[in-house]
Amino acid sequence: MRKGWTIASGAALALFALAYGASPYVAVRGFVAAARQGDAEKLRGAVDFPAVRADLKPQVAAAVTTRMQRDPQMRGNPFAGLGAILMPSILDRMIDSVVTPEGIAALVRAGKVGHAETESAAPRRVDYDFHYIALNRFDVALRRQGAAGDPVTLVFQRRGLFAWKLVRIALPQSSLIGPAEAPPAS
């Protein structure tokens, strides 16, 4: 009798560990499927929009500031100071309007930042690379097949035992600064 309980307990523990370890893969696959289908309700439940917006604002602000500092036309421009003053407000509004279920879905479907290309009838395939960062954090790197440069990285965080939410979108510097101005890889 005791041996049966030991086996059952071990099996239950192994099943729990398997479900716990596999939960981000299941959650991310559901997230990607919802994005591909444009299911806004599922995406609303899978994304911590305030956290994503709060994380994107400094990324974009730093990239725009860098771009302005490197632009030779901006150095002598008397309106550059005014632009620097107004930039945070403009960027905040822009990010708030883009970080929506529809915007997240477009990012996941395209595998890149910016507008989807309309030059070809068949869109390029997007590759997804999944991996744990820590026990409660999980990365998904999105890269369009054949695209050069760093991928867009989606960072998910565990919420409870088996639930996961998107909390961060790490944009590649080359998409923010521009390919001609991106710092060389070291």
Short description:
The chain is built from seven helices and four strands. By secondary structure, the chain is an alpha+beta fold.
Mind explaining what this structure looks like?
With 186 residues, the protein is α+β, with helices and mostly antiparallel strands. 55% of the residues lie in helices and 18% in strands. It has 7 helices and 4 strands; from the N terminus they run ααααααββββα. It has helices at 2-37, 40-46, 49-70, 72-75, 80-98, 101-110, 173-177, and strands at 126-134, 137-144, 152-159, 163-170. The protein has a 4-stranded antiparallel beta sheet. Strand 3 and strand 4 (163-170) form a beta hairpin. Helix 1 (2-37) crosses helix 2, helix 1 crosses helix 6 (101-110) and helix 2 crosses helix 6. The longest helix has 36 residues, at 2-37. The radius of gyration is 21 Å and the shape is elongated. The N and C termini lie far apart (63 Å). The model is unreliable at 179-186 (pLDDT under 50).
SSE blueprint and pairings:
Elements: H1 2-37, H2 40-46, H3 49-70, H4 72-75, H5 80-98, H6 101-110, E1 126-134, E2 137-144, E3 152-159, E4 163-170, H7 173-177
Antiparallel strand pairs: 1-2, 2-3, 3-4
Helix pairs in contact: 1-2, 1-6, 2-6, 3-5
List keywords for this structure.
186 residues; single chain; alpha+beta; 4-stranded antiparallel beta sheet
Outline, from the CA principal axes?
elongated
Mean pLDDT: 83
Quantity of strands, as a count: 4
* Beta-strand percentage range: 15-25%
Contiguous low-pLDDT stretches (5 residues minimum) are 179-186
Radius of gyration: 21 Å
Strand order of the largest sheet: 1-2-3-4
User: Which class do the helix and strand fractions yield?
Assistant: alpha+beta
Measured as a percent range, the helix fraction is 55-70%
User: What is the count of helical runs?
Assistant: 7
Q: From N to C, what is the helix and strand string?
A: HHHHHHEEEEH
Distance separating the two termini: 63 Å
Largest sheet: 4 strands, antiparallel
